[in-house]
Each structure stands twice: as C-alpha cells, then as structure tokens.
Amino acid sequence: MPRKATKEAKETDAFRKELISALTEDHAHTGFDAVMKDFPAELRGNRPEGAPHTAYQLLEHLRIAQRDIVEYALNPKHKSPEFPDGYWPKTTEPPDAKAWNKSVAGFRADRKKLVAALEKADVVAPIKHANNQSLAAKTILLIDHNAYHLGQLVLLRRLLNAWPAE
User: Are the CB atoms for 41 and 100 separated by under 8 Å?
Assistant: First the structure.
C-alpha cells in the first residue's frame, strides 16, 4: 500500500509545478514562444536608435545564459563561459535563418532539459557542486533572467513595428 504523501511533500510538489509553470508559460510577462513567434527575418539583426542590442543578440544571450545556468545546476563538470563576452554572440545578426532557428531550438531544448530535471529532482535540496544552491534557486534565477530579456525583446519588436496587436 502506498504511503500517504506528507504535507511537506505535497508543498514541494506544488512548488515544483509553480516553477515549471513560471518557466514554460505566459504569466506576468510574455513567454519565449510568443516573443519568438513570426519574428520577421529581415529585422533580426536590426538595432533601432537607442536600443542596446539586436533581437539576435538577445536571443543568443538568452540561449547561452540559460544553457550555462542549466548545466551549472545539473553537471558538476560544467565550465561556464568567460564573463561577459562568452554570454553574447560575436555578431549582431544571425549568419542565416538556420542560425536563428538553431538558437530558438537550443533555448527550447535546454528549457525542456531543466523541466525534466525539475520533474524528478528534490528541487529544494542543496546541490553540492553548485555552491549548495538548490535547483529551485537556479530555476528562479533563470525565470528572472529570461523575463528581463524577453521584455527587452518585446520592446525591440515594438520599436521595429513588428509586435502583433493584442
């Protein structure tokens, strides 16, 4: 006969579901898939006056930083890129459509990898190789980082007149 879940286990499961939801769904901010949907190819390397980055730079930064955070949490042998240069692409525009699509797919794959880890891990347990931070702490960091740069991408799309009407 299966044991009844403790109150603590139920709370941890609820917390896990909230983390996954915040990571993968649109809530207080527009999510990754909505921001990337139908992004005009001809605008991916454009930087409007006053904007610090192009869409491609932001996309690649999101992908690189997310991969680093996920690997840092899951892989004790992971080596982070050099900061800050290793977290940004070398070019302002994608070399071709395949590069953009590869970056989008890479972001989604790493997010999926994190979700899979969240689904089976003790999300609040300290991770020894990650300065004893928990998977929950690293996920919250990632959610925060992604939300910030996704907001920049929404603003960039608006400046480029490429944001769909709500």
Answer: yes
